[in-house]
Design goal:
alpha/beta; rod-shaped
Length: 164
């Protein structure tokens, strides 16, 4: 004897199975598309870049302890590198003469700050040292080291003293 067949229950069961399969397949596809490979994740969600250095320092908060040191070489001197956030600022003298024993300078101007093809800016800055005014060219990557800031006082160090 066979049992009576309920086609409605069987059809409903198949429909539920099909819906479950479609939901599972859709979730699996969504997971694959959103996860991708590690390279896809990195490209889609790169790590946050460090905040760029400001263009200028805040001279209203400058103290003797926070004064930056500017190493100055002659126009033809090869500097040991560019300025960096942890060390000394590097510049070449372009016009004028450093007075003997000059220890500090007041930054008067900042110009020509567009970076070169390597991302290094070669800013021109006028510095007042006592009654003398000189022009230096400050070499730095602006996103790492702020420009010399008009109104900022900097400590001066001749290149020879830096190298010694």
């Amino acid at each position: 004897m066979s049992r009576p067949t309920n086609h409605t229950t069987r059809s409903r069961g198949r429909a539920m199975l099909a819906v479950g399969f479609l939901i599972g397949a859709t979730l699996l596809l969504a997971l694959v598309l959103t996860r991708g490979s590690g390279a896809t994740l990195q490209a889609a969600y790169p790590p946050a870049a460090p905040a760029p250095a400001p263009h200028f320092v805040d001279v209203s908060r400058q103290t003797d302890a926070s004064m930056r040191t500017l190493v100055i070489g002659s126009a033809t001197d090869q500097l040991p590198g560019t300025s960096n956030a942890e060390g000394f600022l590097m510049a070449n003298l372009r016009t004028g003469m450093l007075p003997d024993g000059a220890a500090t300078a007041l930054v008067l101007s900042d110009a020509n700050c567009d970076p070169d093809k390597d991302g290094v800016s070669h800013c021109l800055n006028q510095l007042q040292i006592g009654t003398s005014v000189v022009t230096v060219q400050h070499h730095h990557q602006m996103h790492l080291v702020p420009c010399l800031t008009p109104g900022e006082t900097v400590k001066l160090m001749p290149l020879a003293a830096y190298q010694g």
